[in-house]
Amino acid sequence: MSYISGMNYSTKIKEDLDLLQTIEKQQYKAQCRDHVRFLRLLKSGQCSTQTEAAKRVNLSLRQAQRVWKTYQEKGLETLLQPRKATYFGKLSTTQISHLRRFLLDDQAQTLADIQAYLAGSLGVEYTLGGVFDLCKRLKIKPKTGRPVHIEQAPGAIEIFKKSLLR
């Protein structure tokens, strides 16, 4: 394995130390900066193994192995490109706005109601757990009414408020 002591990283890493240090300082993404620092530590000889360099840069051994493999196969340019998030959810922004409008109209009482709306109106299938996660991601909180006494007459509160205004 390449993380075992004895490998001469100074010859395996093509870029010189000054260039690696300059590139490291230019990085605004912490992940890219750590990857370049990992290579620089190996190239300079400050760390003789990938394990040692990974600990200094705060990477796991497996991450360090992936960084080294990527560097060997595709070069430094690939390490400098930050990973992109690939999952944006099933709903588009317009569908999310339709869902929010549906919820603002107080038409949904349960997650099952939201699930039925998503399937019927927007054509997107979600499990109940998926609807829960969606609401959590969109910061949609459950709306619960205040408790009402059993013997309270409907509309009594509005009549009382009107009598106070006179």
UniProtKB/TrEMBL annotation:
InterPro entries linked to this entry:
Homeodomain-like_sf (IPR009057), InsJ-like_HTH (IPR055247), Winged_HTH_dom (IPR025959)
Query: Which is one Pfam family of this protein?
Result: HTH_33
The superkingdom listed in its UniProt entry is Bacteria
User: Which residues belong to any copy of the Winged helix-turn helix domain?
Assistant: 106-162
Q: Which SUPFAM superfamilies match?
A: Homeodomain-like
The chain positions of domain Insertion element IS150 protein InsJ-like helix-turn-helix read: 37-84
Protein known as: Transposase
